[in-house]
Amino acid sequence: MPATLSVNLNAIAMLRNRRDLPWPSVTGIGQQALEAGAGGLTVHPRPDQRHIRFSDLKPIRNLIDDLFPHAEFNMEGYPNAEFLALVEETQPEQVTLVPDDPAQATSDHGWDFRAQHALLKEVVGRLAGQGFRVSLFADGVPDREALEMARETGAARIELYTGPYGGCYDTPERAEEIAAQLGETARLASELGLGINAGHDLTVDNLPRLVRHVPQLAEVSIGHGLTADALIYGMSETVRRFRRACGQTV
Asked: Which domains does the chain have, with CATH numbers?
């Protein structure tokens, strides 16, 4: 079954935040994406609220509940007390835990499942116990022992960090090598019972290769490249293009 497309709204929110004005509308653009067939919406509310604001969360939750009940809301973040409180208040279908320092511009690595196992087991237990599907950001290195430790936290999925893959846009041979590594990591994780998501610097051009190497892919979360394309094609057509790149029939 083709991977679901979740549209990350952070870049839309960042553009809005350049002025003290309500446009572009985060929920309005999110509605366009869902009307075009996106399977869900993703946000990463950072402590400084430099893109998604905490006040955006309830309107996005209401948009999905009221108009798109089969879509999913995915919240990403570092599991500090503030983020966990936001999750429990907002009630997303999926929580993606990332090991970001709050000062980072964007996510740039996966969890060290050995060093941070105790933290993750505690947090995943708290979230999974409330019915949230939990996904853990993971480097695309085929390390079975690390993946076993990820599974032992109780997480349902990992999200493969595809930044290095996306960075090979001008070196196809290297992109093929990294895609193969991601595929092997996904194979090992799948054998251990973990579902597979992916995200970071994915584009219409590089998605098909990733899909070939990672047939287990359940979901891709895409923001930067999708938003950039939306400036050219519009959000609705861009979502359709990315859905086709995921292997969906549009």
From this structure: 4-245 (3.20.20.70)
